[in-house]
Amino acid sequence: MLEKREADVIIIGGGIMGCATAYRLAKRGVDVLVLEKKEIGNGGSCRNAGGVRQSARDPKELPLAMYAVQNIWPQLSEELGVDVEYHQGGNLRLGLTDKDIKVLENHTAKSTKLGLEVEMISGDEARKLCPYMSEEVVAASWCPSDGHANPLKATLGFYRKALQLGVTFVTGVKVMALEKVKGRIRKVITDDGVYEADQILLCAGYESRRIANTVGIDAPVERQFNEVLVTEAQPKMFDIMLGVAGGEFYGHQSEHGSFVLGGNSGLQAFTSNNDNFVTNSLTAPCISRGIIKYFPILENVKVVRTWSGWYDQCIDVLPVIDNIKEVPGLTVAFGFSGHGFGISPAVSIAVSELMLDGKSTTIDISQLTYDRFHAKG
Amino acid sequence: MIRVANPEPFVEREDDDMIICRCEEITKGEIRRAVYDGMRTTNEVKRYLRSGMGLCQGQTCQRLVQGIIASELKVRPSELGMIQGRAPVRPVEIRTFSKNVTDVKED
Amino acid sequence: MKRHELIVIGAGPAGLSAAIEAKKNGMDVIVFDENQRPGGQLFKQIHKFFGSKEHHAKTRGFIIGQQLLKEAEDLGVRVELDSTVMGIYENKEVTVKQNGEVHHYKGDAIIIATGAAENMIPFKGWNIPGVIGAGAAQTMMNIQGVQPGSKILMVGSGNVGLVVSFQLLQAGCEVAAIIDAAPRVGGYGVHAAKLARTGVPFYLSHTVVEAKGTDRVTGAVIAQVDEHFQPIPGTEKELDVDTICIAVGLTPMSQLASNATCDMELIPQKGGHVALLSEYGETSVEGIYCAGDVAGIEEASSAMIQGRSVASHVSMKAGYLTEDEFESKYQGYQEALGQLRQGMFAPKNKGRNDFTETDEGYPISKTLLAHGYMTEEELSKFPAASYQKAGIHPVIECTQNIPCNPCQDACHFGCIKVGENITRLPAIDEEKKCTGCGLCVASCSGQAIFLVDETYEEGFASVTFPYEFLPMPKIGDKGKALDRQGKPVCDAEIVGIKKTPIMDKTAVVTMKVPLEYVHAARFYRAEV
């Protein structure tokens, strides 16, 4: 029976961050082992609406988003040999009220400063871009270089490519704790025995905090509940990624033709839900009302399923991507706060550089450090 | 479960063009290739190919897809996990969904 | 939100029975069904059921459905039709699509009784129109009154395939063949025999490899399979059919249980993914139960008992039954279920094909398993099938241990004995006199009882058999007597026809045949 207990690098978490980073590291000749508790991409990686968005991002993570859009996404299908269904159809972030417009204008101003091409447009201009939209929309921000992709294909595409480059994956293994040996990270204690490596990347979504805690590392990250509905396939209507200013409604029409639309009932922060991913009975109706408000033409389209997931919400809604100096050999990438998918291909480059070169040189991630939550000096 | 790349080349079969998931028109060959590409569970194949994501949500094809995966991997279908049952278990129009009656009149 | 003590999902045999039991015990129960009429699959079942009196044996399925509905109505059970349960959420909340809206209900307990869906097998062209499920064929014939096709290939020789094939013949269709990849007929031998004697050929160890046609089926190619169920090249045979009917088993429709986060497992003997259940039918989520086919594929008779059994547990937990009351009800239901779950076709024996003799020690007919009929030589090993006596007397060609005993109750003179264990083969009491009334002939759900009189006339015998086809023969009609594989063996003349209400549309027809064919002649075909 095949077994592998040791590698140069162990990656904890078989989501898109883990799979993509495994691929980058393997490409640079590193021997990588990925540990995953359930199946590949079972967490937020396959439970998101597929936005590849730069607009309305915090300037601190905008470099990741812009790098991904400019340098990775357009060629990713070819690079991976799997069609990740990337569409650069632009992003409309919709506003219905004056308050919404203020939020959008604020984001637009900040992003423009960093060189992102994004502008405020009127409701009518938005309807020219997407004729199916109702009169409710009075203004929008428009970022033509934004888009969307298929998160399932992208995650499994990275996984497949990593496998091809010699990465070993072990699934069905739950990580219980990390242990240092002689001052450096070394051991991964699991429900299936001990695995060892010189370097460890922790990118296990909301479970990262529990695992990090076992070596005295902590970041203010909590899990957040998130729900999406999927419709039956429709003829192609638009290629635009949509969202509303407050983020309570978002989605796109997938290449397959189905609409993938997320939203919330306002109750999810307080859900009593367990790990079984049961949806809330009020959320799909809320999303449906949102759809009818913005896209009344879709009212007779059938919903075929709803699903939910947990994402790793960080206190400042930004990820922690860093080498942990207190625990040499440990690198973390978590806290993506529900918008990690679009930047994941860039994150994998930054993380692989962090791990192999000691710092991220290609992309500026200096604002996403671990010590931002801790006492200085 | 340990997973490494399959060193052997993918071998096509005569009946690879047979449709297995009717809703999403996924063929036997696509499922076999997905397994070859590293998909090891019912859900991974579903996410990779959309088998079981159509109107019937896998009621018809899950058994068939699992049979193919199991035979490719030489395991029992019961080891492959299953497609999670998701609301609505029957397709429902957005219009209907939006009419959400929580207070039912007493009759 | 409206709250009920019990929400039952599905108004089929299991769900209705559960609701009846709960209501009888005093519970506040509501039943939802997505269809426009209740009864589930029962209303498609025009054949007589097996079992004993308490299982409604020898009653046709749709009549059992009517009785169940009446019982529910008389008790005032609330059944909401056209009401699709969309999901089960936390705290036993369900959403239901009704009148174009989503309604929310909550239950103290939920019984999932959503039944099963038909299995499909893939082959070249399996997705072109004309390839249909056996259940769909039943709906077309028995609910909508439409023939599913004119020439039909039945794929699958389990009870569903056999019963539906017979119904197709009754509906005036031609059944070109019944095939099965297994080397043995999967369903009851008596169901196979009543088809074989009409001339329907059986091809065991055969599979369908192609549906011919582009926009609809214009033919079917079948081929013999090897021991690994792979088609053997060169054995292909093309059949002239316009419809391919698939009857290769059922899969529990268990998505709601999975949606409700019940622990699930793929259990092949139960037909697919099912919720793991306690002995009382409760899932891993407290207060959520499964009953009927969704809990594991069986049949309507056991589904009805399971429904009642599960509902009695719910009633006890809700305080409507004491523990003692529950225990005694539960024991009764378990006994009734136990009777149905005995014999060679018991759920625990699913997939077994190593029976070589009956419980009584008689050798099981190999021809029956391979071709759907028995040879006279094989029948001679069974006393009731080879019984001979001067004057009219029954001949019972029932040769497998199946749970059924209406023949015993049918004979008012005690000629036929099954005994306590209803899977025993019926035996004939030679001391008792047969009057030739024919009630046993009509009562046998397997149509396996005949009356024979070797001394009917000088040189002639009479053979009395059950007949459920139109047009009904008339006295004086002349035609051919067919043997057990449907081959004409001699001339025959119709000399008697009995149709009484108690026979429930099974005519008891008597034909006169030359004496030497008395043991061969078992069916009749009019001269055309």
From TrEMBL, chain A:
| Domain (FAD dependent oxidoreductase) ranges | 8-353
| Superkingdom in the source lineage | Bacteria
Give any Gene Ontology cellular component. cytoplasm
Per its UniProt record, what SUPFAM superfamilies does this chain match? FAD/NAD(P)-binding domain
Molecular functions (GO terms)? oxidoreductase activity
Query: Keywords assigned by UniProt?
Result: Oxidoreductase
Please give the Pfam families that the UniProt record associates with this protein: DAO (PF01266)
Which PANTHER family does UniProt cross-reference here?
FAD-DEPENDENT OXIDOREDUCTASE DOMAIN-CONTAINING PROTEIN 1 (PTHR13847:SF287), SARCOSINE DEHYDROGENASE-RELATED (PTHR13847)
Q: What is this protein called?
A: FAD dependent oxidoreductase
The organism is Ruminococcus callidus ATCC 27760
Q: What is the lineage of its organism?
A: Bacteria, Bacillati, Bacillota, Clostridia, Eubacteriales
Automatic annotation (TrEMBL), chain C:
Q: Which UniProt keywords apply?
A: Oxidoreductase
The chain positions of domain 4Fe-4S ferredoxin-type read 424-454
| Top-level division of the source organism's lineage | Bacteria
**Oxidoreductase among the record's keywords?**
yes
Q: Does the keyword Lipid metabolism apply?
A: no
Gene Ontology molecular functions: oxidoreductase activity
Q: Which Pfam families match?
A: Pyr_redox_2
PANTHER family in the record, alphabetically?
Answer: ANAEROBIC GLYCEROL-3-PHOSPHATE DEHYDROGENASE SUBUNIT B
- What is this protein's name? Pyridine nucleotide-disulfide oxidoreductase
